[in-house]
Amino acid sequence: MNAKSAAPADSRSRLGTWFDHHVYSLVASLGRLLGKPWASALTIGVMAVALALPVGLWAALANIERFSGDVERSRQIAVFLKPELAAERSRALAEELRARKDIAAVELRTPEQGLAELREKSGLDEAIGTLEGNPLPAVLLIVPKGDELLLAESLKGLSEADLVQHDAGWRQRLDGWLRFGTRLAWVLAALLGLGALLVVGNTVRLDIQSRREEIGVLQLLGATDGFIRRPFLYLGACYGLAAGALALGLLTAADVALRQPLAELARSYGSGFALQGFDPLYAAAIVAGAGVLGWLGAGLVAGHYLRQTRPTDT
Prior knowledge:
The chain crosses the membrane at residues 38-61, 184-204, 232-254, 281-306. With 314 residues, the protein is of the alpha+beta class.
C-alpha cells in the first residue's frame, strides 16, 4: 500500500519539479533580457524590422485588392440593353440568364436607378434636369461562374443586347500584379525570416559563450541537454515575442499615419475606401509566429553547441 501511494507522489513531485524549472527558466530569461537593455533593444529592433517588411507588404496587398473591388465584382460583365426594350422584357431576360449554369448572379439596374446614381456621383444635377426623359438604358450586371471570356462572347449574341462591356485585360493585369506581389511577400518573408532566425541565434550564441563554464559544470553533473537548453529557448522566444509586438506597433503607426491622407485621396475619386488594419486574430498570429521563430533560432544554436560540448565516455 505504501509503495503504491509513493509512486503517484513521486510522479507528482517530478511533474512539479519540471514545471518549476520551466517557470524559473522563463523568469531567468526575462531577467537576462532586461539586464542588457541596449543589446536586447538592438536585437529586438532588427528582428522587428525584418518581420514588419513582409507583413506590411501582405497588408498592403490585401488593401489594394479591397480597393480594386472584390473578386466577384471585378469579374462582372455589363450588358447594356437596347433603349427601346420594355421593362418587362428586361426583367424576364434577367430571370432567363439567372437560370444558366455558367452564370453565378444577375443584377438588373433599371434606367431610373442608373440616373439616380449618375445624379449622386456626378454632381451635374442641373444639367441632368434639363434633359428630356431618361436617356440611360437598362443594364444587366452579370457575375460569371466559369470562363468569363466565353460568357462575354455568348452574351454578345443576345438580340436584346446593345453593348457588352467586359474589361478582362485590366482584371488579368491586376491579378498578375497581385500574384507577383504575393510571391514577393513570400520571398521576403523567407529571406527576412531567415535573417531574424540568425539574429536570435547569434544573440543566444553569445549568451551561451558567456555561460560556458556554468554549462560545463551542469554537463559534468549529468544534466540533460533539454534541461540546459530550456533557458535559452525561453530567451529566444522572449526576443521573438517582443520583436513581433514591436513589428505590429510599427505597422499600426504606419497605418495611423497613412489612413487619413489616403481616405481623403479616395474621397476625391468618389470612393469611401479606407485602410484596414489587423484584426486581433491576425495580430496574435504575427506575435506568436515571431515567438516561434525566436524559439527555433535559439533551439538550433543551443542544440548545436551542446552536441559539440557534451562529454563523451572513454
